[in-house]
Amino acid sequence: MHSRLLLSLLLLSPVALIAQTNGQGLFGVDLVIGLPQDEFKEVNKDALVGVMVNFLYQPSPDIPISIGGDLGWMGNGRKVQYEELTADITAGGVLIDQLYFPLRIETSNNVFTGHLLVRATAPTKIFKPYAEGFVGFNNFFTTTAIYDESEEFYFSEEDNPLITSQSQSSDWGLSYGGAAGVLVELGQTVMLNLRCAYNLGTTVQYYTRDDIQNWEVEVNNISSGSGGYEFDEDNVDVSAIPKSSSITMIQPTVGIAFRF
User: Fold this and answer.
1) Angle 79-214-236 from CA coordinates, rounded to 5°
2) Cα–Cα distance measured from residue 192 to residue 254, given in angstroms and rounded to the nearest whole number
3) Are strands 162-185 and 65-91 parallel, antiparallel or unpaired?
4) CATH class of this structure's domain 2-259
5) What is the three-class DSSP state of 217?
6) What is the pTM of this model?
7) How far is CA 20 from CA 107, 188, 251, 259, in A?
8) Predicted confidence (pLDDT) at residue 45 exceeds the cutoff of 70
9) Residue ranges per domain, the chain?
């Protein structure tokens, strides 16, 4: 998580520095769909869906070239599983009572992306076609989070039911490509953004939607100490083999851009 935050700051810091000049800035929020192509499609046939934000700055009003960056997140499958742990209360080898600990287990495939952008925009009114090139990174990661569903919150706090979160896979790869789009003026400072990108990426390892639908997360054993019942993170077991391929996607997006 810290490495993703650092890369985000590195991508956005040039925009903050350029914004101190007298040019024109653009901030956008988009919905994005990732349509797998080529080798990626052979392994993963499901579309990825997510959101993206982008920051662009045109230093000179006379030169229709903007530079900036984008950050995005896409999901590629999610599964919710419910488990119940049982603790026996015994005295002298005789079973007195049992305690039940309901758990909610959420597994999700995620893609975190970031790019540096260069965009050339036609100096027209109302409809502004553009073309751009980009280079950056893809981070494919799968996370399993376990939540306490008990009314007594044996393993967590009432305002935060998360017990533990673990990453089953995390891999980074280079991402690059080109895009074309059009900005449609809706008002003085608001524009509709329609864009389609061809995104190429190097080989990474990842889990697919089918992988996480077919596996079961096993949670074994709980222990009792002087402070009460304790959850052992080492007893979380996931059995699955990640896929591996280069990453090629067509990414149509639709969003809103704000001029400042």
Assistant:
1) 70
2) 8
3) unpaired
4) mainly beta
5) coil
6) 0.80
7) 43, 22, 32, 15
8) yes
9) 2-259
